[in-house]
Each structure stands twice: as structure tokens, then as C-alpha cells.
Specification:
This protein is an alpha/beta fold. Helix content is 42%, strand content 12%. It has helices at 2-16, 24-50, 64-72, 121-126, 129-138, 147-157, 172-175, 206-213, 242-251, 296-300, 324-335, 338-377, 381-387; strands at residues 79-83, 161-166, 183-185, 188-195, 203-205, 229-233, 257-261, 283-287, 317-321. The longest helix has 40 residues, at 338-377.
Length: 388
Amino acid sequence: MSESREQNKKAEEETETPGLEEDSDDSSEEGEASGDSEMDFLRNLFSRTLGLSPGEKVLDELSLAGVAHYIQSGKCKNIICMVGAGISTSAGIPDFRSPGTGLYANLQKYNLPYPEAIFQIDYFKKHPEPFFALARELYPGQFKPTVCHYFIRMLKDKGLLRRCYSQNIDTLERVAGLQGEDLIEAHGTFHTSHCLSIFCRKEYTLEWMKEKIFSDDQIPKCETCNNLVKPDIVFFGENLPSRFFSSMKQDFPVCDLLIVMGTSLQVQPFASLVSRVPNSCPRLLINMEKTGQSDFPMGLLGFGGGMDFDSDKAYRDVAHLSTCDDGCLALAELLGWKAELEELVKQEHALIDSKDFKKKGEKADQTSGNAEKAKGAEPDATKSDKTE
């Protein structure tokens, strides 16, 4: 009896269970389906627990044209720009990390222990010479804003710019026409400088610092206490400006388009700002390469603060791979702003050139006047001989 039951059971198993050799593909598909359902479960679990559920898809397509359509729709009223050194390279200012041409790759002449030391506050206090030597090469006032800078200015003029968050210290955003309230200089600025003494902290202007850097002394010292004076740029080991944190809390929750340009998104806490916009907010990257993508665990689950350009879960991130100037021109053309942008750049550069020409003329007149005064102060050798 028991043998009969075992034979019947065996027959049932053979009937219900397909052979591995014949139906291995079906088995694989079932396994994948099971894996997908488990992944969906994990996504839902993490989404509910951490509040990371995907937002509504706002763009009609994940392309530069889709972004342009969204801007033109009238629904986009609070654009935030996040920018890095890449927006200034066409002005002649090197970025930091590009192999061969980046700033960190060309600091050998300063005999630094490691490239980043030039921006380390402790190293600067002991050895300020390398930093000020570099500052003479890159000092603000020697460069003109780029097409990208003026595109951001156009966003402001059209009432679309909520704020520009910049990692740059070259002040070109200000030169292009952004005011202090339009701008968060996350890593500080050359616009002002302060004495490093905690008992003094006297403030100095851009022009004062420029005069000192290009003088024979070269190392700026406080006129009150003779301590070292440093531009208000953020060195490694220093805190970011308090306004960065207060503005961040106000701006990013209401952002309806984030435009990221010319940054590797490697330096924190600046890089983390991309995750602070609402889940439905589109994010456009204009850069030479993709960056800021999701970390592996979060990207694997299909969500997280990082960018997602390529997965089947992508719904709001667009990468336009080009120079920042070319990307801004392309977007401006789609918006019908290209001629206006090109004219703005032409007019502003001509204005800068005329101011530079005027300054050079005034400096030449001053030099000539000083020479005449010096000549007039010299004793008349002929007259002296006759008198004697």
C-alpha cells in the first residue's frame, strides 16, 4: 500500500514539475519576476519609511527641449542654479580637477606637500606665499563673465531666478549683474577680506586686497594689528557662510527647476543640495560629463537624492553634455532667447572693455604726472654750478 502511494506521488511530481532542460527559460523568467516583485516591495517599504517616493513627472520629455517647454509653460517660477568652476573656464580661469589642465594638476611650482594644501587654512597661516602667488594669476578683474554667467543674469531679468548657488570665488556672477541677494557664494568670495585675528577682524575691500597682492609686499597685513589678512573665501577646515544654510532651507523646498552647471558635485555639503528640491522638481545638468548620480544602494532601489539619467525609473533628470556656454546657448535657442543673450554678452563685454581702457588711461596719466613731479623736484645742475 505504501509503495502504491509513493508511486502515485512520484507521478504527480513528474506531471506538475517541468524538466529543467526543456523549460529553463520559463524558470528564469519566473525568477526574474519574483526578483522584480521583491525589489518593488523594498522600494515601497523604503519609500514609506524614509519619504523617498518618486514625485510626479513634470517634463513632457527628458531632454533639453522638455526643459524648455516646461519653462515656457508658465509653471516654472523659482529656478535655482548650482554652478561650479566649469562655468568660468571659457573666461580663461582653470577648473580644479580636470586632468592636465585643472588647477590642482599645475601647482608643482609652489612646492606644496599636496595640491589641496594651497586652500588649507592651517597651511595658509604658516605659508601664505603660495596662495597669494596663485591669487595674482587668477585675481578677479582680469576676466570677463561667460555666456553662462549672462544666461543666469537673463533668468534674473525675466523674474525666473530664485537664487544662484555658486562654488566659485572669481566674483564673475557679480560682474555679470547678479546682486548680493541673488547669490549664495557657498565657498566665499574675493569681494571682501578680513584680518585673521579674532580680536580684530577688520574688513577690507576688493580694491584694497588687489593693491596689496600686486604690490612689492605681496602678503597683505592688517593696518590695525599687522596680522595676516585673508580674502573671505572658504578654505578647507573653515565653516561655510551661515547664509548658505539659512537660504538653503528657504529656497530649495520651493524650487521648481534646478539647473546644475560646471560642477563635479564632489565637494560636500554643496553637492548634497541636489537632493533638497521637491521630488517632482526637474533637474537639468549642463556639464562635460554626467555627475551627481545616485549612490549604489539608493540607485539600485530606484530612488535617492542623486541624479538618475538612464535607469527605467528616471522621471525628472536631464543631462546635456557640452560646455556650459554651448548648453546655455542651446537652451536659450529653444526658449527663443538666443539673439537676446548674444546681444547682452556683446554689450556687457564692450562696457567692460571701455571701463578697462578708461582705467588704463587714468593710470597712464597718473604715472606720467608722477614722473613730471619727480623731474621737477630734481635739482638744476646748471643753475647750481653758476651759483657756486
